[in-house]
Amino acid sequence: MSTSPASESPAPDPLLTARDVVKRFHHNCVVDHVSLDVNEGETVCVIGPSGSGKTTFLRCINYLEKPDGGVISLAGTLIGYKIDKGHLVELRPAALARQRAQIGMVFQHFNLFPHLTVLANVIEAPLRVLRRKRSELEDEAMQLLADVGLADKAHAAPSQLSGGQQQRVAIARALAMKPRVMLFDEPTSALDPELVGEVLGVIEKLTAAGLTSVVVTHEMGFARHVADRVVFMDKGQVVETGAAQQVLGSPEHQRTREFLAKVL
């Protein structure tokens, strides 16, 4: 009796998809036809020299910068647009805010509200945007603060925290919206060297738990350790992408090798 090989399950569609994204400032093309797929639960680290378009591309993903070309989608839904009678129509602010709620972002600088406590900073966005009950949010926020090691600072002011602690609060604040994807824009670049490890440790814990993440970073050791894939950008373009060990250990492109020789 003959047997047929078991059929393989098709690969799931990427959670986040960017296709030929372009962003110009005046005549300067900062992001030049960049494409990227990110699967659910995957961590992608984006590396490259300053001015290579990494941060601008990240800001295009959640429409903080409006792309001049290309499309970005999350779970099959276009970011920043809807299709109306066969034409792309830009979303109104309220609809765009609802989309952004699914894409958390942690910036280089913490941007905490100085007049609010740590706990109030964490619940502010879901309270205002999602219109959820304060009592529910406070319970969830306390758990998030515990997750980032700051439950004892819930009633402190941001000015009473170190830079590393403020950045951990910023991470908890982004997670409070329960995003599908988290974007980290060089989250340790504004920190003193001795504080970098505590923030990277929190991100590592989150990614290990399956948080879908795109991380722009200059910490090569961190990228090697946590990334499922590494993307190297230069002059607004993706030069090389692949598994972390391949790109960081045995890069194929000369430009990648030159960059890594300077930073490692």
Shape: globular
SSE string: EEEHEEEEHEHHHEHEHEEHH
Unreliable spans:
none
Structural class: alpha/beta
| Rg | 20 Å
Q: What do the pLDDT scores average to?
A: 92
Q: Strand order across the biggest sheet? A: 8-9-10-3-11-12
Distance between the termini: 58 Å
| Count of helical regions | 9
The largest pleated sheet is described as: 6 strands, mixed
The residue fraction in helices comes out at 25-40%
E-strand count? 12
In terms of DSSP E residues, the strand content is 25-35%
Annotation keywords:
264 residues; alpha/beta; six-stranded mixed beta sheet; four-stranded antiparallel beta sheet; 35% helix; 26% strand
Description:
This protein is 35% helix and 26% strand. With 264 residues, it is α/β, with parallel strands linked by helices. The chain has a six-stranded mixed β-sheet with strand order 8-9-10-3-11-12, sandwiched between helices. A four-stranded antiparallel β-sheet has the order 2-1-4-5, with helices on one face. The longest helix is centred in the C-terminal third of the chain and has 16 residues, at 193-208. The mean pLDDT is 92.
Per-chain topology:
Elements: E1 16-25, E2 28-38, E3 43-47, H1 54-61, E4 69-74, E5 77-78, E6 81-84, E7 87-90, H2 93-100, E8 103-106, H3 118-128, H4 134-147, H5 163-175, E9 181-185, H6 193-208, E10 213-216, H7 220-226, E11 229-234, E12 237-243, H8 244-249, H9 254-263
Helix pairs in contact: 3-4, 3-5, 4-5, 5-6
